[in-house]
Amino acid sequence: MQETATPRRSDSCAASSRNHSCSLCGRSFSSAHCLRLHEPIHSGRYPYRCEICGQGIVSTSNYRRHLATHAGTRDYKCTLCMQAYTCSWSLKRHFRLIHKQQPD
Predict the structure, then answer these.
(1) Measured distance CA(57)–CA(46) in Å, rounded
(2) Which structural domain, as residue segments, surrounds residue 78?
(3) N or C: which end of the chain has fewer CB within 10 A?
């Protein structure tokens, strides 16, 4: 089964200027580095693989963040509805999409 990537947060790889395109799927990226991070989606050769669920992961920071989902640690809580998240950017996205505002 081929995985598809979707932007999860606003970062340098999701910048508006996208001059580096994937030759296999046509998706565009803001840098050659971001394109290299995307390539394992097609080859299946990820530099990191979760020992718990087997998911392929492209970077050390993503691997650490992924492990937090298994540990159940949700340190980032919404002050309005108490929904909890493993990553600060998930909480920021929640505020923007659900509460239509920026977090405090």
Answers:
(1) 6
(2) 74-104
(3) N
- Enumerate residues 6+ apart whose C-beta is below 8 A from 24: 42
Instruction: Please report whether residue 32 resides in a domain.
Output: no
**Burial class, 72, CB count within 10 angstroms (exposed 0-12 / middle 13-18 / buried 19+):** exposed
How many domains, in total, are found in the chain? 2
- 74-84 pLDDT, tens digit per residue, is 889 999 999 99
Banded model confidence at residue 69, pLDDT cuts 50, 70, 90: confident
Q: Which of 101, 76, 104 is nearest to 91 (CA)?
A: 76
- 48 part of a folded domain: yes
Is pLDDT larger for residue 11 or for residue 40?
Answer: 40
User: Mean pLDDT throughout 57-68?
Assistant: 90
Residue 8 lies in a domain: no
